[in-house]
Amino acid sequence: MCLLAFLAEGHTGFNLWDEGYLWYGVQRVLHGEVPIRDFMSYDPGRYYWAAAWLRIFHDEDLVVVRAATAAFSALGVVAAGILVWRGSICRGVARLALCAFAMALCLLWMVPWWKGYDAAISIILTASLARVLVLPIAGRFFQHGMVVGLAAVFGRNHGMYGVLACLLATPVLVFAAKPIWRRCIPAWIAGVALGFSPVLLAIVFNRSFAVAFWDSIRFLLFEYKGTDLPLPVPWPWTVVMAHQSLSTLIRPSLIGCCFVGLPLFCVAGVARALRGACSRRELAQPQFVACVATAIPYLNVAFARADVSHLAQAILPCLLGLLVWPYHARVRRGFAWIGLPLLAAGTSWIILPLHPAYAMRIEGGWRQLDVGGDILWMNPSAATSVADIEELARRYVPPGKTILSVPVWPGAYALLGVRSPVYEIYPLLPRNDEFQEQEIARLRQASPALIILNDIGVDSDERLRYAHTHQRIWSYIEAHYRRIASPPDEPQLKIYLPDVGG
């Protein structure tokens, strides 16, 4: 399934924003730089995973990065199939069909592709916790601890969600399984430490990494006081009905229903799991309990930035929980004949527009462009941006020089194969004066030959214009660079060249 999906979409679409953010980081790792320490990044795991694939193929092209991500996503898809196979009470062909349905469902929701790591990790954490609940012995606690620690290497938030899921599953274990805690808890802690050891060792032996690591946590928790740029929750009752056709209203209404369904599943799932544990004094449905326990902390992913792509990263434990829910026999038959088709139809309606291969077939104007050696199909907006960046670089950037691209196109660095002159390659959030002065010092040293400033309010919020979030750097650019004409198709771009006289 994953191979077919990659063949269908591996050369389709391009995103200078988040996709470029990942691609640039993988490039820098191949050049010996360290994520977090040397450039703003996600946590290190995904970069080294992708870089290992690029080393094998002796390539830095984007399609190989996509292939590496698809391979990681496949781990999650396989874990979903195993989870449903072991949690289903169906027999024979029906059981196999339910597993295939679960894997196809997960694959559909793994969008956008560069977030396949996050979606797959949510499934892997669920399946690993289910193994502990099936047989809560010290060895499995240790193995699950390793999975949680490794998840944190790919994303500290995933490590935290894994820990919280374990804590949430503890009451069920107390009621039903009664493991030998004096052995299991130390084994689990040892597993977490071992899984997270690559980062722990870097913190201990590399002072620069340790400083940058703790500073990234301090900034989010105490300076910005958040984990993402928030968006209002698209509840179904907030959908604007006036002057809209029925077909136009269906998708936003379904998305809103998903945001209602996530917390409802968690509440109902907790009640069902506790009732079963208390009445039977045994853990009859460990896979279901693991889905509920993991779905609860992942609510933060969906609601911290309430859009479809973050919903996709949070929904998979919930969907798998629906498939292994301990229904009564009559309800189970109704769910098989009615619920599963509705789930498939709703998923397709919500998520297919986010798949570039589908979007290309329903939209017009897509064209092929060379992106770092790969020929990609992309929509007119992305194609225009790529062509403008390459033309500006051809005109104004001599060999050996770099550019500054702010705030939303870190992919410009990867596209041109240049090193960013500043640490913060994706400057969306407001930064203090001290940090901006450090960035200005880096700018002076690198002396970029071209500055591309995308003068937009991110999320249509004027407060998030670069001139407001990074006022000192903006003033430095205005004082030391001269502005030239913007590309005709993208008037929001402000283009600057060095002011020789200044």
From TrEMBL:
Keywords: Membrane, Transmembrane, Transmembrane helix. The keyword Magnesium does not apply. The chain crosses the membrane at residues 63-85, 92-113, 159-181, 187-205, 254-274, 334-352. The keyword Transmembrane applies. This is Glycosyltransferase RgtA/B/C/D-like domain-containing protein. It comes from Rhodanobacter hydrolyticus.
